[in-house]
Amino acid sequence: MPSTTAAAEKLLLQMVDDYTEREISPQDMPMDAAGDFPAGFMQKLTDTGFLGIMLPQEFGGAGFGPEVTAKALNHIARGNASTAVTLEGHFKTIDQLLKFGTPALQKKLLPSANDRIFAFSMTEASGGSNPMGISSTATREGDHWVINGDKIMITNGGLAQVYCVLVKTAPKELSVFVVDQDMPGFSFGKREDFIGLRGTPVGEIVMDHIMVDDDHLLGKLGDGGLIGDSAHDDARILMGAVLTGIMEHDLKIATDYAKERKAGNTPLTDLQVTHRKVADIAMRKETTRLLYQNAAKLKAAGQPYSEEAAMAKAHGSRAAVSAGDDTLQILAGYGYSREYPVEHLIRDARAMEIAEGTVEKMRSAIATAEFNK
Amino acid sequence: MKIVVCIKQVPETNDVTIDPVTHNLDRRGLAGVMNPFDKNAIELALHLKDTASEDVQVALLTMGPDDYAESLREGMAMGADAGYLLSDRAFAGADTLATGYVIAQALKKIGDADLILFGRQAVDADTGQVGPIVAEFLHQPQITYAASLRLSGKNEVTAERLLEDTKQTLVAQLPAVVSVRSELNTPRYPTPRNIQLSFDKPLTVWHHDDLDLDDSRLGQAGSPTIVTKVYAPKPVKRELTPLTGTPSEAASQLITALKSRQLI
């Protein structure tokens, strides 16, 4: 018999595949058209326990490790990338609470992560990939902190109920606080109308004199840069998994179509030009899978994984855009039609050349790591 | 209340082959999944557990190789409390009669099951015979093809049978054996947390020597079934004459009808 861990992983992925086929995939096209999750969609996902996949069992979650969690998102993304990215945003935030939160903060917040979405917010109008450019602040007033600022382009912004927010606690000091949508002074702002991952809400929160105690500080004062980098690293592994799922979706569409379609009297499967494109999609998919699984394996083993996570996202995002482009070309007119999912898979993949650090920033991080070896 | 749900692991693919010698399904080397109809039976048991005023314990029972434990775990991740795997080389090659015999003996050992549930049939062999055979071995009332079921009184269930042309409402005293149709419910998904917790639940493996068995009734040697040919039968349209009135009046009508056809 397989080990308990392997057997549990098999059962989880079996359930994820079943759920994706029956509940998620049918919503892929409607979600893209509507620009939102359908009514009841997130509630059912929540009721089925998806929010707690990687949450430790002591907090009511399932406690699956980084490798299995990433594989689960990979499998979900075969059916719909938006659902997987919403879970990615939730999981990366839980990860930071687990890494940097005090036992008291974890005990207070994490049990609710089974049925409330958590989000991590760094970007502002004045700064995205440059954290020191932000203008949100937390200032000390008596025995509490007062938070002011405006965060934009938050994955799950508007959907999430709990937010980790990067603020300045001194002119050159970044820190992270945890705020809740129910706190006085918290409000939602504009929701973005992005071209891809259209199911995933991306929006703004406005913090107007939100008062919190010291116990809402994540890590120590001045840990903001460290926590932000860590959140990026964790997100990038999961994005590699999502991108792999998108390319698996591409590959299925491309091969199914090629097996049915003829060019003149020649089946597409007999054309060298089709071979080249299908092989390229398959190789891009497989290299991204190996990259994200390697990063997840390092993370699970407690070893450094920042560079490997950056590789998974930097390679995977361009690979998925190219895979979508090749799939579109195989389907030709049908690929260019909005009646088929290929064009939105390209738009979905394109988001991940920007989100969680641009590919340019990824390459700088990878190069810097290599220079320092 | 104790409910035992008997489940089967079936090949994941429809691409099964027929053994040219035995004419049985050749399941060797095929990945397995839980028979889909059995999930409806588990869901019924869990619904009764969720809604009954008394404590309801749900156990799962299957017969097969070691890897059938995967389906037991899946059922326990759905919410069942325990699993029993009957696994021994001596059980291999069993037809529905020999399978039903071993399952019935295991149910006797488990003891005190108020309700024994089956899916309507397994999707690989499609016989639907094991449930009724187990009911006969245990001398218990049986209701097959139930599309609804409720506990209708102390030690009593009421079920609606969905047949090709008609519906029947039957009441049975417990303990009883019921096989269920997929129209009954929509099986729940095992949650990720319950998948993990299922590995803390008891899974008992019983081999040949753990059960009180007559060896002549086991495996291929204990299987009177000889498969000569596998084919899809043509549907036969039968005349349907409902029996009306009290049970006594209905019995009189039945006897008259059988006599008129010289069947008795």
Explain what you see.
The complex is a heterodimer of chains A (373) and B (264). Chain A is of the alpha+beta class. Chain A folds into three domains: 111 residues, Orthogonal Bundle (Butyryl-Coa Dehydrogenase, subunit A, domain 1); 105 residues, Beta Barrel (Butyryl-CoA Dehydrogenase, subunit A, domain 2); 146 residues, Butyryl-CoA Dehydrogenase, subunit A, domain 3 (Up-down Bundle), CATH 1.20.140. Helices cover 52% and strands 16% of the residues of chain A. In chain A, strands 1-4-5-8 form a four-stranded mixed sheet, covered by helices on one side. Chain A has a four-stranded antiparallel sheet with strand order 2-3-7-6, covered by helices on one side. In chain A, a hairpin with a 2-residue loop joins strand 2 and strand 3. In chain A, helix 1 runs parallel beside helix 4 and helix 7 runs parallel beside helix 9. The longest helix of chain A is centred in the middle third of the chain and has 37 residues. Chain B has 264 residues and is α/β, with parallel strands linked by helices. Chain B has a single domain, classed as Rossmann fold (3-Layer(aba) Sandwich). In chain B, the strands form three sheets. In chain B, strands 11-10-9-12-8-1-6-7-13 form a nine-stranded mixed sheet, with helices on both faces. Chain B has a two-stranded antiparallel sheet with strand order 2-5. A two-stranded antiparallel sheet of chain B has the order 3-4. Chain B is globular and about 60 Å long. Chain B starts with a strand and ends with a helix. The mean pLDDT of chain B is 89.
List the helices and strands and how they pair.
The complex is a heterodimer of chains A (373) and B (264).
Chain A: H1 4-24, H2 28-34, H3 41-47, H4 66-77, H5 81-100, H6 103-109, E1 118-121, E2 137-141, E3 144-155, E4 162-170, E5 173-180, E6 186-191, E7 202-212, E8 217-218, H7 224-260, E9 262-263, E10 266-267, H8 272-300, H9 306-331, H10 333-336, H11 342-351, H12 359-371
Parallel strand pairs in A: 1-4
Antiparallel strand pairs in A: 2-3, 3-7, 4-5, 5-8, 6-7, 9-10
Chain B: E1 2-6, E2 9-11, E3 17-18, E4 25-26, E5 32-34, H1 36-51, E6 57-63, H2 69-78, E7 82-86, H3 96-110, E8 115-119, H4 130-138, E9 142-153, E10 156-162, E11 167-173, E12 176-180, H5 192-198, E13 203-206, H6 247-260
Parallel strand pairs in B: 1-6, 1-8, 6-7, 7-13, 8-12, 9-12
Antiparallel strand pairs in B: 2-5, 3-4, 9-10, 10-11
Helix pairs in contact in B: 2-5, 3-4
